[in-house]
């Protein structure tokens, strides 16, 4: 049905500059995807171009943009980066799917491709993938829970006065021969850095 393109920050910028339709496509996709965020923060979508440019410029410099393309249109986008604190971990910042293609497993395809292809090298070292989800975004919470993400903690953004969840995904690596108590100890070590 579609195909993936994976771009680092510099190449993503070049890709956007290549064709005005590409920027418009990304702009429309982000507007649809972040409507919940915009409503919570009372951000106007009238000047969406400015919001999109800000989203790109204020993103991490080591971000990877995973685009899902169908019929020459970007219908899905995932932005992630590797965060180096104590151990490297993958942070998914955004996962967006065009309204016309929701409920067709496109989000699952994108997330699965990210986990099994893009991030596989880190997952082998048992580092989690982390995502933050707004408490009000029930659809996203359900989606990530279904895929195996677990809520680790609930935090409050004092500036905007809203709550969000930090969720982790741990790649299923445990050898089935190990006892249940050993498995629980290993999992608890992985969840908290």
Q: What structural class results from the helix and strand content?
A: alpha+beta
Assigned CATH superfamily: Gcn5-related N-acetyltransferase (GNAT)
Largest sheet: 7 strands, mixed
User: What's the helical proportion of residues?
Assistant: 40-55%
Query: What's the CATH architecture name?
Result: 3-Layer(aba) Sandwich
Which descriptors would you attach to this protein?
single chain, 193 residues, alpha+beta, Aminopeptidase, 7-stranded mixed β-sheet, 42% helix, disordered C terminus
Report on the architecture of this protein.
This protein has 193 residues and is α+β, with helices and mostly antiparallel strands. It has a single domain (3-191), classed as Aminopeptidase (3-Layer(aba) Sandwich). 42% of the residues lie in helices and 30% in strands. It contains 8 helices and 7 strands. It has helices at 9-18, 20-33, 35-41, 48-57, 106-118, 120-124, 138-147, 180-191, and strands at residues 3-8, 64-70, 73-84, 88-97, 129-134, 150-157, 162-169. A hairpin with a 4-residue loop joins strand 6 and strand 7 (162-169). The N and C termini lie far apart (39 Å). Residues 173-193 have low confidence and may be disordered.
Strand and helix map with partners:
Layout: E1 3-8, H1 9-18, H2 20-33, H3 35-41, H4 48-57, E2 64-70, E3 73-84, E4 88-97, H5 106-118, H6 120-124, E5 129-134, H7 138-147, E6 150-157, E7 162-169, H8 180-191
Parallel strand pairs: 4-5
Antiparallel strand pairs: 1-2, 2-3, 3-4, 5-7, 6-7
Helix pairs in contact: 1-2
